[in-house]
Structure formats: structure tokens, C-alpha cells
Amino acid sequence: MSGLRGGILPRSFYAGDTVDVARKLLGCILVHEAPQGITAGKIVETEAYIQGDPACHASRGMTPRNRVMFGAPGYAYVYFIYGMYYCFNAVTASAGVGEAVLVRALEPLQGSHLMRARRGRERLEDLCSGPAKLVQAMGITREHNGADLTCSQLFVCTRETVPGKFVTTTRIGIKEGSEMPLRFYLEGSPFISRK
DNA sequence: GTCCTGATCCTCT
DNA sequence: GAGGATCAGGACG
Q1: Taking chain A, what is the end-to-end CA distance rounded to the nearest angstrom?
Q2: What pLDDT sits at residue A71?
Q3: For chain B, which bases have at least one atom within 7 A of a protein Cβ?
């Protein structure tokens, strides 16, 4: 699986239009080479957070928490939420622009035994079917905030097969901006967080 | 300093 | 479908 490194998405991939990047990430592989072993999963659900979007963390300017979003594209933005969970985002657009793509669900491809141990769940569909779940299953921590997705232990690879049709809907768990169609998932996947 | 809110998950009912 | 767990950031004084 280390051969996947050959397919690492370049920084230019993330530098494009955020909504476009969110769609193109569907079907790509998120990989984490942890000391305990490698875990990998196919991205089946994403959400875009863009400029002028009230639900975007960057909408009220840069703070110590969201500063990674304003940096160069191709870095991981990991933040703490609800007192218990972390969510993983890929920073997009150009430096100075606070935009990112939230990865909401994965289809486990490798290291499912590790994922089960980290999650305490057996069913494959319960391992990565939510933003906080996949972070836990992949072994991602706050230490990964600001990690370079093009040259670190945490990276994303280009898709190996052409994904099927994807569905565009509204985002989950937000109030303002909830009418914007910025959530994307692979149609029919049993691994998405919800329909 | 204090108060409030939240891009969630899990366990009930 | 509802509610609790649990805590960092941000707004305000």
C-alpha cells in the first residue's frame, strides 16, 4: 500500500475552486501511516466551506484556531468540536483565503482491524461513517492540524477507479448557510453518514 | 474572568 | 426522534 504514495495528490489539486475540489475528492483515498500501522479509506462524502459562507469557520476572520485555513492549500485542518470530537478538513483555495473541504465519511480499504480497535465497533459501516468517527478510526489527532497532505504520514491519493454518480445536497449540522448545496456523496454507498 | 455555542456521536425510547 | 456528554473558542464586561 505504500505504493499509494506515488499517487499523492499535488498541492495544485487543492489550489483550485473549493466546491470543485470537494467533488473531485470523492473516490480518492485518505491514508495515514501511523506507528501502529497503515489505515486507508475511500472518501465517499465531503462538504465545502467557502468564503462568504456564514457556516465556515473562517467567516469571521483569522483566529489562532482557524489560522491553518488561511494558509497554503494542501494542509490538514483538524479542529475540536462538541467537547469530545475532532473533524478533519483539507485546506483549499489560495493562501489568504479561508476555505476548506470537510471529509465526512470513508469506505474502509485497509487496516480495518486497527479501525475496529480504535473505534470499539465491529461493523465496517460503523467505522468511518461520520466526520468524528473517521478521525478516530484513522488515528488522526490534533497533532495533525497543519500537517502537509502532500508530504507527511497523512496524505490523499488519486482515485484508482472512476467513481459512480455522486449526489449534491445541503450540509449537515449547521444553521446559517444550511440552504447551500455544498455536500457531496457517492450515490448508493453504505458508508456515508446519512442520506 | 464568565457565559454561551457548537461542521457530533451514542444510547436510549 | 430526543437528550446527554463535555470543553475550546469567541464575545463580552
Answers
A1: 31
A2: 94
A3: 6-10
Is the pLDDT at A163 greater than 90, yes or no? Answer: no
Q: Are A90 and A79 in contact (CB under 8 A)?
A: no
CA distance A138 to A31: 8
Q: Stretch A97-115: mean pLDDT, rounded?
A: 95
Distance set, CA A34 to CA A38, A75, A140, A157 (Å): 6, 18, 9, 16
Nucleotide closest to A57 measured between CA and C1': B7
Answer yes or no: is A96 CB < 7 A from strand B.
no
Provide CB contacts within 8 A for A71, sequence distance 6+.
Answer: A91, A95, A146
Is the pTM higher than 0.85? The answer reads yes
Cell numbers for A141: 489527532
Q: Which nucleotide in the DNA or RNA is closest to residue A176, CA to C1'?
A: B7
| B6 nearest neighbour residue (CA to C1') | A82
DSSP H or E segment with residue A80 = strand A76-81
Dihedral sign for Cα A6, A23, A41, A15, please.
positive
Do A43 and A28 meet the contact criterion of CB atoms below 8 Å apart? yes
